[in-house]
Amino acid sequence: MLRTITKVKDLPFNTIEKHLGESFYLFDVEKLKFNYCEMLTAFKSRYSNCIIGYSYKTNYLPALLEEVQELGAYAEVVSRLEYDLAIKIGVNPTKIIFNGPLKTGEDIALAMKKGSILNLDSFYEIELVQDYARGNKNQTYKVGLRAGFLLASEAGEPEQCGYTQSRFGFCVENGSFKRAIQLLSYIDNVKVVGLHGHFSTKTRSLEVYKEITQQLCKLSKEYIPTSVEYIDIGGGMYGNVPAEMKVKDVPSFEAYAEVICAVLNKEKSYFANDPFLILEPGLSIVVDTFTFYSKVIDVKKKRADYFVLVNGSIHNIKPTMHDINLPMEHIKKDDALYENGIYNVVGYTCMEKDYLAIDYVGTIPKRGDYLAFSNVGAYSIVFNPPFIKERPAILSKVKEEYKIVRKKEELKDFINENVYVFR
Questions:
Q1: Is 203 exposed, middle or buried, given 0-12, 13-18 or 19+ CB atoms closer than 10 A?
Q2: Residue 320 pLDDT
C-alpha cells in the first residue's frame, strides 16, 4: 500500500514507478459512489420501483465490482464468464441480470435454477428454456424477452456505426416477438415477466429513451399485462462529458429520469402491479472514475510537428481508436521553462495510428514529465489487450487512501503457461 497523500501528483513519481511502472490507471472510488447515488436518486425520487444493474462488460475490475455491489447494484452480465465473475464477487444469483445473444444450454439451466433475471434474445434460447422447464416440471420459471423495434425518425438516427436497425432481440415488426410470446405460453411452467429494450444509439437523447420506454410499456400492455414484473430499458446514457470533448446537448441523470419515469407513471395503471424499472448503466457511472497516467519518454520534431512519446498507447485510453482528444493534464517534473505549441502524443506500439492526442495545444512536455488522460473508465480496461507490452497497474483512491488493485502484468501473466502450450 502506498502512503497517504493529497493528490497523486504530490507523490514523487519515482516512488510510483517503483511500485507500478511508468504508466498506470487511477480509480477514484468516491467518484464512482457519487455517480451511482446521483443516478439512483434521480430515478427513485420519481419512480420508487427502480433497480440499477451495473453493466459488467463496461469495466470488470474486481475492486470496482465490489464497490457497486456494496452500493446495492445488481450485476448485468452478457456471458457465462461474466456470470461466474459476479458469483465470485459474491452477488446473489437472484440479483444477476443475464442478457446477451449467446447462451448455452448449461447457461440457461443455471440461470433458471438460481432464479436469475434471464432475458432471451433468440429462438434457440426459447428451445433451451423449453428443454430445461419440461425436465423440471415441479417448479415455475420466469423469463424476459429482448424486444427489437424501429425507433421513430424524430428520435434522430438511432443506431451507432450507421446501421439501420439493431441486430438484437425479437423483431416486433415481422411478428417474431409475437411468435416468441406464443411459444413460451405453450410451456406450462414458464411465465414471461419482463421486457428488455437496450439500444446502442448515436444520440443517447431524451427522445430515444422516452420512445424505448413507451414501446416497452405498449408491448407489455398488449402481451403480458397481468404478469409483467419489470421494464428493462438497458443502458447507454451519457454520464459526465467534459467540455473539452465538445459534445452538445448532454442530458443529466435528472433529465433522463424525468422523461422515462413520466412514461412509467402514466402507464403503470394498466398493469396488475407496478413493474420495476431496470437501468443498466455502464459508461455513465464509470467513465470519469478512471485516469491514465503515462510517462514522457521522448520528444521529437519531424518537419514542423512535435511528437511526444509516452509509455502508453491508444489502447489504454481509446480502445475504439476514435480521434477525439480526451481531457489531458500535463504534470511537469520540475519548474523549468516550457515552450508553448502544438504537439501530438504517440504510443509505444508500432502502429502508425497509435495517437493518444492529435494537434494538442499547450506547453510542450519534456522527458520525464507525465501526462494524465481522464474519462477513460469505460471499456478501456476490458478492451485493453496485452499487445506488445503488458497491461499497466491500477491504483485505487478511497478518500485519501491509495492501494494497488491490479498489479502490472509480467511475462507469466502475459503468456500464461496454464493456457499456452510450449514444446
A1: middle
A2: 87
CB atoms within 10 A of CB 152: 13
Q: Is the pLDDT of residue 56 over 70?
A: yes
Please state, in angstroms and rounded to a whole number, the distance separating the CA atoms of residues 371 and 386: 21
Separation between Cα atoms, residue 120 and residue 169, nearest integer Å = 8
User: By CB neighbour count within 10 A (0-12 exposed, 13-18 middle, 19+ buried), where does 51 fall?
Assistant: buried
By CB neighbour count within 10 A (0-12 exposed, 13-18 middle, 19+ buried), where does 344 fall?
A: middle
Does residue 386 come out as left (phi exceeding 0), alpha (psi in the -120 to 50 range) or beta? beta
Q: Are strands 141-148 and 190-196 parallel, antiparallel or unpaired?
A: parallel
The residue type at 30: E
First to last CA, the chain: 39
Using alpha carbons, select from 180, 261, 250 the residue that is nearest to residue 214.
261
User: Using an 8 Å Cβ cutoff, are 185 and 220 in contact?
Assistant: no
CA 234/CA 200 separation, integer angstroms: 9
Task: Indicate the pLDDT class of residue 9, thresholds 50, 70 and 90.
Answer: low
Q: How many CB atoms lie within 10 A of CB 75?
A: 27
Cell of 258: 424525468
CB 358 within 8 A of CB 305: no
In 263-379, beta strands by DSSP E: 276-279, 290-302, 305-310, 328-331, 340-346, 355-363, 370-374
**Which DSSP string do the residues of 145-181 spell out, in sequence order?**
EEEE-PPPGGG---BGGG-SS-SSSEETTTTHHHHHH
| Contact assessment for residue 25 and residue 395, using Cβ atoms and an 8 Å cutoff | yes
C-alpha distances in angstroms, 101 versus 121, 131, 325, 378?
Answer: 6, 18, 33, 21
The Cβ of residue 326 has, within 10 Å, a number of other Cβ atoms equal to 18
As a whole number of angstroms, the distance between CA 122 and CA 126 comes to 7
Contacts of 164 (CB under 8 A, 6+ apart): none
- CA–CA separation, 340 and 316 (whole Å): 26
* DSSP letters spanning 92-147: -GGGEEE--S---HHHHHHHHHHT-EEEE-SHHHHHHHHHHHHH-TTS-EEEEEEE
262-287: pLDDT as tens digits: 999 999 999 999 999 999 999 999 99
